[in-house]
Design a protein that fits this description.
An eight-stranded parallel sheet has the order 7-6-5-4-3-2-1-8. The longest helix is centred in the C-terminal third of the chain and has 18 residues, at 154-171. The two termini are 14 Å apart. The protein contains nine helices and eight strands. With 213 residues, the chain is of the alpha/beta class. It has one domain (2-210): TIM Barrel.
Length: 213
Amino acid sequence: MIKDNYGQLKKEIGDAVTLIAVTKYHSIDETLEAYDAGVRHFGENRVEGFLEKREALPEDAEVHFIGTLQSRKVKDIAGHLNYLHSLDRESVAKKIEQYSENAVKCFVQVNVSGEASKHGLSPEEVPGFLEAMESYSKVTVIGLMTMAPHTEDESEISAVFERLAALRDSLRTGNHGNIQVEELSMGMSNDYGIAIRHGASYVRIGSKLMGSR
């Protein structure tokens, strides 16, 4: 099933967009099945799951941390952390600087929709936050991440993704050093098609690839 799902998704998505298999709550066997199907990027939102999948997967697989990361937990995964999709606090950057041996590719999480239930900076806060990140050599900001609201209204979803892309475009002129705002991490199983139309370069796919938990 996973192999068939992956083949169909790759036909839709193509090679220009990186597909991250969201394997939270899925078994090691299912995760390795996805690897055998061709998946090389995996997403976990809990430290325990991240470490478990990192240990099980071959070295050429990348495990992205896609959930909210508490600063006190950074040291637990720092040795294996290459991609973080939820940077929105300087306290986390400080811990990355302290514990990571290599630079971590980070997406700044932006709460475009303004929903109280979502983490992330407001769009207005992002420029100042990027300025603060310039002093952290182990933090490489490669782009922005957002999550669309849970709604059937495609125009509402489109508006969120469009706004993140516009924010990225406005920030590109300030790229230098460890601040390289180029990538967009947005789109999940229910809205990845809309996200890709608005320029997503990383999509996080769970049930559409891995099946229901």
